[in-house]
Amino acid sequence: METRIQQWRTGTGVRVLFVERRALPTVDIRLTFNAGSCRDGAMPGLARMTSNLLLEGTDHRDAGDISQQLEQHGARASTRCSRDTAELNVRSLSHDAHLKPVIAELGECISGSTFPAAALERIRQRMLAGLAQQDTAPMEMVEKAFTAAIFAHHPYATSPGGEPASLQSIDPDALRLFHRRYYVAANATLAVVGDLSRQEAERIAEQLVAQLPSGEPATALPLARACPAPCVVRIPLDAEQTHVSIGQPSPPQGHEDHSALHLGCHILGGAGLTSLLARRMRVERGLSYSSASRLTAGAAGGRFQMKTHVRNDALAEALAVLRESLQELLECGPEADALALARENLLGSLPLQHASNQDLIGHVSTVGFYDLPMDHIHHFTEQLKALDAQGVRDAMQRHLDPASMTTVTVGPESAINAVR
Length: 420
Fold this sequence. Notes:
- It is a single chain.
- This protein is of the alpha+beta class and 420 residues long.
- It folds into two domains: 204 residues, Cytochrome Bc1 Complex, Chain A, domain 1, CATH 3.30.830; 186 residues, Cytochrome Bc1 Complex, Chain A, domain 1 (2-Layer Sandwich).
- The protein has 16 helices and eleven strands.
- A six-stranded mixed sheet has the order 1-2-6-3-5-4, with helices on both faces.
- Helix 1 packs across helix 7.
- The radius of gyration is 23 Å and the shape is globular.
- The termini are far apart.
- This is Pitrilysin family protein.
- It comes from Spiribacter onubensis.
């Protein structure tokens, strides 16, 4: 059954999406700002550092006070920053005696964060340590290089975690300017799921965002475009295996071909051991225990990606298998059995993705932030049911071009320099 999403706007103009669920006496809340790393500009890491410091102190409370107030009422709050969004996530008991003080505390934090110097240095060192760790992890290295290569000069190209030099240059003034520009009502979406009536949800929504200035929405991003020619990025790393990513930008969230592309990608490498890549790479050739494809979507574009890690001496064969498998799917379309199995798998997993309030809040927030139809899941489900092999092939041919894809390899020089 389709989840009923109610929506309205607060007095300050924040769009609210609400789902009433009475099974448990809890409420999940996600306040989303169009303030992800795509807004970093010349200072990579600024958006994530702002997000990380949001609950570290106000004029009246320090981080310890804030944490103690939340714990006293059994609530949990966290922040997260991706390329598109900066989020405040809250889980609380729904009884007014607990929920009201929690919302009051967090409402003051989101509008009145002061970015204390001591907290800034602590978060800076934590982010720098994270970057240092990523620089020695092949999976992180290939992901970062792949994203930078396919998005090139687009704002999505920079990592949300920033770069060491940029992180060192961020000061409280830069954080305050970013916060003042993007943490405003016109740039926010609020999702609420749980044990509340519509009237109660309206009240806590007003309370949470009452102190936000009206502001202006963030400017729209240009669409990400595929590179006109293939690109190969080789990153030397002394390791027993080589990590590989192949792909390109894909259509943005809400595109009419998303369901067909999603199904095609699932057939190619998203359905575990039954997928085409798993069969070709693992079962038939024993090249890799882990080969997959995935499709993501953002406001200005997504990523189509095939990835694996293989023995260094098997790299050339693995690259050939990945590319040939995709080419075959583009030329011939999926086999009937593979299409039916992938469709059944996707349709069967959808209810589980929204089984809990914490699962559902992600869906509701996505619908609000990307301005998707209120019946998005129903529409997506009906599209999956209606798709045939021709529809999947046509969509993949429209948006995926092996001749312009980027290949990133991370491994020993002797292995990565020997292949194209």
